[in-house]
Amino acid sequence: MAPSGVILLLLLLPVAAAGVTPGSCSGCGPLSLPMLAWLMAADAVVSLLIIAVVFVCACPRHRPTLDDKVYINMPGRG
């Protein structure tokens, strides 16, 4: 079951969209090709950065082996 805040947001979304008149913002025209290419490149770089951070944090760290210690109750370890 969805929380009541989400339901309220979904109910108010059409009301907010109806209040916006088309063409009300200045400079909201289509993006130029260089600007669109730059935004796509920036999006790709940020996405790869997020993937790299998740990969580094998720990989198990290599811990040194404990072969120099003597384990009494573990046969084969010393």
Task: Please tell me about this protein's structure.
- The protein has helices at 4-18, 33-58.
- The chain is elongated and about 80 Å long.
- The chain has one domain (3-58).
- The model has no long low-confidence stretch (mean pLDDT 76).
- The chain contains two helices and no strands.
- The chain has 78 residues and is mainly α.
Entry keywords:
single chain; 78 residues; mainly alpha; 2 helices; elongated
Strand content: under 5%
Q: What helical percentage do the residues reach?
A: 40-55%
* Terminus-to-terminus distance: 56 Å
Q: Please state the structural category.
A: mainly alpha
Number of strands: 0
Q: Could you list the spans in which at least 5 consecutive residues all have pLDDT below 50?
A: none
Order of helices and strands: HH
Sum up the overall morphology in one term: elongated
Topology:
Layout: H1 4-18, H2 33-58
Pfam families: DAP10
Keywords: Disulfide bond, Glycoprotein, Membrane, Phosphoprotein, Signal, Transmembrane, Transmembrane helix
Family: Belongs to the DAP10 family.
Please sum up the structure shown.
By secondary structure, the chain is mainly α. 53% of the residues lie in helices and 0% in strands.
